[in-house]
Amino acid sequence: MTNREFFIRCWEDEYPVFLKTLRAVPADRLDYRPHPNSRSAADLVWLQVVEKRCWIELLETGQINWKIPPITLNLAEMVAAYEKAHRELAPRLREVNDTTWHQRPTQFLVDGRVYFETSMGHMFWLGLFDAIHHRGQLIVYIRPMGGKVPAIYGPSADDEVDIHQPLFGEVESFV
Question: CA–CA separation, 52 vs 46, rounded Å?
Answer without folding.
Answer: 10
